[in-house]
Amino acid sequence: MEELQASLQPRGLTLSTFHDKGRSLLAARDFYPGEVIISQEPYLCVPNNSLTESRCDGCFSKSNLKKCSACHVVWYCGSSCQKLEWKLHRLECQLLAKLDKERRKSVTPTIRMMVKLYLRRKLQNGNVIPVTAMDNYNFVEALVSHMSDIDEKQLLLYAQMANLVNLILQLPNNDIKEIAENFSKFACNAHTICDSELRPLGTGLYPVISIINHSCLPNAVLIFEGRLAVVRAVQHIPKDSEVSISYVETAASTITRQKTLKEQYLFTCTCVRCNKLGQYGDIQESAILEGCRCRDNGCSGFLLRESDEKGFVCQQCGLIRNKEEIRKIASDIKALSDKASSSGNINAAGRMERSFDNLQIDDSGV
Ligand SMILES: C[S@@+](CC[C@H](N)C(=O)[O-])C[C@H]1O[C@@H](n2cnc3c(N)ncnc32)[C@H](O)[C@@H]1O
After folding, report:
1. Distance 302 CA to ligand 1 centre (A)
2. How much distance in Å is there from the Cα of 214 to the middle of ligand 1?
3. Which PANTHER family has this protein been placed in (predicted)?
C-alpha cells in the first residue's frame, strides 16, 4: 500500500482507514467542481454479452463484429481491438476452445471476468503484462469480500460458479474457496461500465477506484470514457475530506437506497441524508421521489413503501394500500398515458386527464 500512497500523493490524494468503512480515499488538497480526481483503466473488464446481444471485447462496440474463430465465445470489431486484448485472450482462447458447445453457453460475463482475473495474475507474475503501482493483483487481494456476511444460498451459488471457473482454468492448485471469495469481491467492488447516456455496456474491476466509499450525498461522480473510469468532483472537496461517490440511484427514497446498499454492498449507510430517515424533510423528499398520492377522502398525504414491502402507507392518514392495488393503478395509468401520447385530439386529452384524476393516485416510483 505504500507504493499506492506514493503514486496517489502527486495527484493530491491519500489513503486512510476508518473503523466503520474500511479503506477510504481522502483529498490531500482542495478539488473543485468538474475537476478530475482520479482515473483508471480497468484491471479487467468484459462486455455484457448475452445470447441476443454481443459487443466487441476491446471497445464494447456493436458494429462490424466478428467472432473469434477459435473459441467461438469472444467478439471483436477489428484487428486493433483484437491486438489490444491478445496477450490475455491467447490464454483464454485456448481454454475456452477446449469446452464443448453446451459448456461454452454457461460462460457468462461474470465467469469470464473470473477466468480473466486468474489469467491476468498469471501473466503479471510472469512479467508478460507489466506490474505498476496502480495496476497489480495486490489490490484485488485487498478488496473487501464480506464473505462472513453473505447467506448460504449465495455462498452455494458462488461455489458452483467457482467450480466452473476451476474446470475452465484446469489449474491443479486452484482453491474453490478463494475463487468463491473473489466472486463475492466482484459483487461489492466491480463497476458497471456505461456509455455517455448511462446505458450499461459491460463490467469492469477498477481496484483503486474501488477504494472510494459511498455517500447518498456524494461529492464526486464516477463516469466512463470508453473503458476508462473517471472520478470527477461535483462540488468543492476541501483538503482532508473524504472523496465519496454514490453506489446507487440518488434519486430514490432513503428506504430504497438503504435496502439496495444493504443487499448488494452489505452495509448500513449513515450519511447525512440517511440519518434523516423518518424526519419530516426525509418523508417529503421520499414522497417527491417515489410517493403515490393518497387522496383517500380528500387526504393530501403521500403513500410510501413500507420497509417490509408489504404495502404502501399514507404518511398523513395512515391508510394502507397493498402492492397489487398500487401496481394495478400504475398499469391503468400507463395504458392511459400510452394512449394519450399517441392521441393528437385536445378533447380526448382532456377526458384522459379526468381519468387520471379519477384514479386518484400518482404512479411515480411504483
Ligand atoms: C467498493 S468498497 C469501498 C472500499 C472499502 N472501504 C475497502 O476497505 O475496500 C465497498 C465497501 O466499503 C464499505 N463502505 C463503502 N461505503 C460505506 C459507507 N458509507 N459506510 C460504511 N461502509 C461503507 C462497505 O463495506 C462496502 O461493501
Report:
1. 33
2. 7
3. EG:BACR7C10.4 PROTEIN, HISTONE-LYSINE N-METHYLTRANSFERASE SMYD
- Nearest alpha carbon, ligand 1 atom 26: 265
State how far Cα 42 lies from the chain centre. Answer: 15
- Model confidence at 356: pLDDT above 60: no
**What predicted TM-score, i.e. pTM, was given to this entire model?**
0.86
Residue 57 Cα to ligand 1 middle (Å): 29
For the Cβ of 22 lying below 6 angstroms from any atom of ligand 1, the answer is: yes
Residues 34-49: tens digit of each pLDDT: 999 999 999 999 999 9
322-330 CB contacts, 8 Å cutoff, 24+ apart = 326/292, 326/361, 326/366, 327/366, 329/292, 329/359, 329/361, 329/363, 329/366, 330/363, 330/366
pLDDT bin (cut points 50, 70, 90) of residue 332 is confident
144 Cα to the center of ligand 1, angstroms:
8
Q: Say what the ipTM of the complex is.
A: 0.99
* Mean pLDDT score of the chain: 90
Per-residue pLDDT, averaged over 280-293, amounts to: 85
Round to whole Å and give the CA distance between 106 and 51: 11
Task: Please work out whether the CB of residue 139 comes within 6 Å of at least one atom of ligand 1.
Answer: no
Q: Which atom of ligand 1 is nearest to the CA of 271?
A: 19
List, for residues 90-149, the tens digit of each pLDDT value.
999 999 999 998 999 899 999 999 999 999 999 999 999 999 888 999 999 999 999 999
Residue found under cell 381519468: 355
Rounded to the nearest whole angstrom, what is the distance from the C-alpha of residue 286 to the centroid of ligand 1? 24
Ligand 1 pocket, mutate which of 208, 214, 254 (most atoms under 8 A from CB): 214
The amino acid at residue 343 is: S
SS3 label, residue 47: strand
For residues 121 and 49, what is the distance between their CA atoms, to the nearest angstrom? 23
Mean pLDDT of 210-232: 97
Q: Is the CB of 189 under 6 A from ligand 1?
A: yes
Q: What are the structural domains of the chain? A: 2-40+206-245 (2.170.270.10), 44-191 (no CATH), 291-366 (no CATH)
